[in-house]
Amino acid sequence: MWLLEPLAFAGRLLSALGGQLGSLWDSLLPLCLWLRATLGLAGSDRAQRQPGGKGPEGARREAEGAGGDQPLTPTSVNYHFTRQCNYKCGFCFHTAKTSFVLPLEEAKRGLRLLQEAGMEKINFSGGEPFIYQRGEYLGQLVKFCKEELRLPSVSIVSNGSLVRERWFKSYGEYLDILAISCDSFDEQVNVLIGRGQGKINHVENLQKLRKWCRDYRVAFKINSVINRFNVGEDMREAIKALNPVRWKVFQCLLIEGENSGEGAVREAERFLISDAEFEAFLDRHREVSCLVPESNQKMKDSYLILDEYMRFLNCQNGRKDPSRSILDVGVEEAIKFSGFDEKMFLKRGGKYVWSKAALRLDW
Ligand code: SF4
């Protein structure tokens, strides 16, 4: 437009100067139209290259922006149905602040809501999930999720101390993965951390659980929290001997109201390690192929956590702020307040081969 107006003015001037000059304007007109078309095209090309333009890059950005408004899918959910535990780990980030456990039928109703909203994997955690009704409640939920909801993956995280062989006999077939928390292969360190009750040797117990997992066809996983007391340990040989499908290695994390600050049941500050210390631990264990590292940054918002009331816990502010319960407002409404970072979930490898059928294990 900025070029057309002076040209139009020139045209009017030429017309005013007479018919001979008018013919000159007639010959200028196609040139004017050509310029307009060329500039117009150049403008649209420039728009494609600029942020927000409609080129492939702009369209992708637009789609990503739109993605932010899409409802989150609870693909993988961690249900901490009890906060009770028989251990007293000094850095525990889901502490025994209540003794509440939902009635079994209510828990099943919530799990069905999650499955209808897109859940593919459920992980039962605590507290210690085997503590309530000696694992019977947990077994019922595991069976329900596999048999009725047909979830591709059902897993448990446990400290392992209360698991009995008869549980595997009743429910092992419905369980894909059993993850056992083990922070050290030195029993003295476990005692320092708070993992242990005196008579149970955590390391010996681990060997027994490994065998049961093999016998009853359950994939075996190990979770370790790297902290001040185990950061110098070399766990390579012990982990390789146990041969888990996955060894999840977390950096000890502070959560206000859980293991730090006001209202907390623990004071985990003395367990903390720096990022550099965590990296040094990872470097030492680089040859262990099943190791999956999780720094504080990766861990904080990349889990969908449900508490004992089936409320999503939002960790964005370094605390666990609860949403309303999915039993009251549904999954879509509650998950909006979860603070879940779906991109980080994918970046940390949150979606992996998680059903034992697909794992094709050499038991
Ligand atoms: S075993 Fe787990 S739930 Fe129990 S105190 Fe230790 S960290 Fe907390």
From TrEMBL:
<comment type="similarity">
    <text>Belongs to the radical SAM superfamily. RSAD2 family.</text>
</comment>
<dbReference type="GO" id="GO:0050778">
    <property type="term" value="P:positive regulation of immune response"/>
</dbReference>
<keyword id="KW-0399">Innate immunity</keyword>
<dbReference type="GO" id="GO:0003824">
    <property type="term" value="F:catalytic activity"/>
</dbReference>
<feature type="domain" description="Radical SAM core">
    <location>
        <begin position="71"/>
        <end position="291"/>
    </location>
</feature>
<protein>
    <recommendedName>
        <fullName>S-adenosylmethionine-dependent nucleotide dehydratase RSAD2</fullName>
    </recommendedName>
</protein>
<keyword id="KW-0051">Antiviral defense</keyword>
<keyword id="KW-0411">Iron-sulfur</keyword>
<dbReference type="InterPro" id="IPR013785">
    <property type="entry name" value="Aldolase_TIM"/>
</dbReference>
<dbReference type="GO" id="GO:0051539">
    <property type="term" value="F:4 iron, 4 sulfur cluster binding"/>
</dbReference>
<keyword id="KW-0256">Endoplasmic reticulum</keyword>
<dbReference type="GO" id="GO:0046872">
    <property type="term" value="F:metal ion binding"/>
</dbReference>
<dbReference type="InterPro" id="IPR006638">
    <property type="entry name" value="Elp3/MiaA/NifB-like_rSAM"/>
</dbReference>
<keyword id="KW-0391">Immunity</keyword>
<keyword id="KW-0004">4Fe-4S</keyword>
<dbReference type="GO" id="GO:0005739">
    <property type="term" value="C:mitochondrion"/>
</dbReference>
<dbReference type="InterPro" id="IPR058240">
    <property type="entry name" value="rSAM_sf"/>
</dbReference>
<dbReference type="InterPro" id="IPR026372">
    <property type="entry name" value="RSAD2"/>
</dbReference>
<keyword id="KW-0408">Iron</keyword>
<keyword id="KW-0479">Metal-binding</keyword>
<dbReference type="InterPro" id="IPR007197">
    <property type="entry name" value="rSAM"/>
</dbReference>
<dbReference type="InterPro" id="IPR051196">
    <property type="entry name" value="RSAD2/Viperin_antiviral"/>
</dbReference>
<feature type="region of interest" description="Disordered">
    <location>
        <begin position="45"/>
        <end position="71"/>
    </location>
</feature>
<keyword id="KW-0949">S-adenosyl-L-methionine</keyword>
<dbReference type="GO" id="GO:0005789">
    <property type="term" value="C:endoplasmic reticulum membrane"/>
</dbReference>
<keyword id="KW-0472">Membrane</keyword>
<comment type="subunit">
    <text>Homodimer. Interacts with IRAK1 and TRAF6. Interacts with FPPS. Interacts with HADHB. Interacts (via C-terminus) with VAPA/VAP33 (via C-terminus).</text>
</comment>
<dbReference type="GO" id="GO:0005811">
    <property type="term" value="C:lipid droplet"/>
</dbReference>
<dbReference type="GO" id="GO:0045087">
    <property type="term" value="P:innate immune response"/>
</dbReference>
<dbReference type="Pfam" id="PF04055">
    <property type="entry name" value="Radical_SAM"/>
</dbReference>
<keyword id="KW-0551">Lipid droplet</keyword>
<dbReference type="GO" id="GO:0051607">
    <property type="term" value="P:defense response to virus"/>
</dbReference>
